[in-house]
Predict the structure.
Amino acid sequence: MSVTATMLPVVARPRRRVSFRAAFGLGALLLIGGSAVLAPQLAPWDPARQMLIKRLRPPMWQAHGLREHPLGTDHLGRDILSRILHGGRISLGVGLTAVTLSALIGVTLGLLAGFFGGRADAFIMRIVDVFLAIPYILLAMGVVFALGPSLLNVILVMGATRWVQFARIVRADVLSIREREFVAGARARGNRPLRLLLRHVLPNALTPIIVVATLELAFMIIYESALSFLGLGVQPPTPTWGWMLADGRNYVATAWWLATFPGLAIMLTVLAVNLLGDWLRDTLDPRLKV
Amino acid sequence: MALLSVEGLRTQFATGAGTVRAVDGVSFAIERGEVLGLVGESGCGKSVTSLSIMRLVPPPGQIVAGRIRLEGEDLLDKDAEAMRRVRGARIAMVFQEPMTSLNPVFTVGDQITAAVLAHESGRRRAAWDRAVEMLDQVQVPSPGERARDYPHQLSGGLRQRAMIALALAPGPQLLIADEPTTALDVTIQAQILDLLRRLQAERGMAVLLITHDLGVVAELCHRVAIIYAGRIVEMAPVARIFEEPLHPYTRGLLRCLPHPSRFGQPLSSIEGAPPDLRGADAGCPFAPRCPLAIESCRRHEPALAERRPGHFVACPVAVV
C-alpha cells in the first residue's frame, strides 16, 4: 500500500518568510522612495518647463499622445511624469518628517500623561482638547499666515497640529499597560520611573504607534496637498502630489490624467506604507511569531 | 536584631465613601533565614501589608502610622531614591500571576539580565551568563535555550520559576512571595514550593509568604501569623497553629479544611462575613462572627498577648 501525501502528518509551514504583502509593500516603497531620490536623473523633463503648444496632451497610449510625454502633459504643457517624480521628493519628505515630528511630540506627551496621571494628565489632555476643538486646517492656516509659507514651516505646522492623534492613543494604551503586573514587578525590583516608562511601558505600546504612524503618513500627504491647495503649502512651481491633484481637479472631465496619476501615486504610497506597517506590527509583537 | 520588624503598621485608603483601614496596627518580625506565613482570607490586608513594606501602596492608599525596620533602618524614613535601592536588591517580590508578571516583549534572559545589571555594574555578557545560571538554579530545563524564549512561549510553571529567578538574581535578604502558587495547578504548586524551600535554605534568605492556603503554610513556613480585618489575631510556630490553635478565627479556618475523618459531611464554614473596614467601632473585629464572643469583646479590642511561649493571641476568651 502506498503512502499518499495526504496521510503524512501535516507540518505547519514556517511563518518566518516575509509575506507577499510585506514584500509588495517594501518593494513599492523602495521603488517610490528610490524614484523620488533619483528624480533629477530619471525625469525626462524639467518639471517646471512649460510648453503651451503641447498642453493637455493625453498619455502616450491614447490618440494624440506623445512618446516624449508618457503620462501626458498638464494645462501648461508640463510633463506629468517628471512632475510626479519630483513631487514625490516633496510629498514623501514632508510626510515622513512631519509624521516623525508629530510622533515624537505625541508619544512623549501621551506617555507622560498616561503614566503619571493626575495633574500632568489633566494638563496635557486639556491641551489635546484645545487642539481637537480648533480645526487643524484653520490652526495651520493661522500659523502659516503668521510665519510665512515655507517648506520648514509647513512641516512644523503639520507636526504640531497632528501630534494629538499619537498622544490620545498612547495615553489610552499606557493607562492599561501601567496597571499590568509586570510593571508593578519592575517597580518592585527598584527600576526608576523613567526606565519603567521606556523599557516596560513604551515597547508594549509600540503596536498602535506604528499603526497610527502609517495612517498619519497617508494623512500628512493629503494634508500637505490641502495646504498647498490653499496656497499655504509648498509654493508653485515646485510640484507636489497634492497640488497636482488639486490642480487637475478642474480638468477632470476633459483631461483625466492630470488628477489620476498623482492620485495613483498617493494611493500606492499609502497602500505600501500600510502593508509595511502591518508587517512591522506583526514582527515586533513576539506573541505573533511562530 | 530581627531582619525585618514591622511595628504598629497602619495603611489606609481614603475613598469617597470613607477611610478604609486596610492594615490596622500590624506588628511582626522576621528573623534572618526565617519563613513567616501571613495567612488570611481575601481582603484582610495581606497584600497591602506586603506593599507597605515595599512602600508601593497605590494611591489613594497611605501608610499613616508605624515603623518598618530592615536591619534597624526605618524604611519609612528613607527618601525615594534610597527606597528604590532597597527594592529588588534587599527585598524582592514574587507575584501571584505568572502569566502577566513578565514583560511580554523581552526574552526571559533579557529581563533577568536587566535585573542583574540594575543593582550591580558589570558587563552584559557576564550578566547574561548569570541569568542563565539563575534559570538553572530554579531548575528550568536547558536554561541556555529557555533564556532566549519570550514569556508566552513558557508554561505557567516555567514562568513562575523565571519570576523567582528574576526576583532572586540580585541576591535579596528578604523575599516577599504574594500567593506564589495560587494560579498554578497542584502538581506544579508542589514543585514550586519545593523549589522555594530549597532556595530559601541554600541562601539563608528570609521569606514572607502571603497566602490563604493553609496547606502551603504547612509545607513551607516556620512561623505563621493569622490576619483578620487588617489585624494580626494569632501568631505562633507552624506546628502550634495546626496542633493547638487558640483564636476562634484560626480554629474556624482550620475547620474549613476538608479532612478524611469528616468524609461525607458538608464542609464547614465560618458564619457571617468579614467586617466593613471603614467602620471605626471599638471591639474585636471578629466578635460578630465569633461563637465564643462575650460582652466585653464588643467593647474592647483585645491586644495581642503571649499566651504560651512564642504563641501570641489577640483573644481574651481563647481557651489555653
In short: The mean pLDDT of chain B is 86. The longest strand of chain B covers residues 18-30. DSSP finds ten helices and twelve strands in chain B.
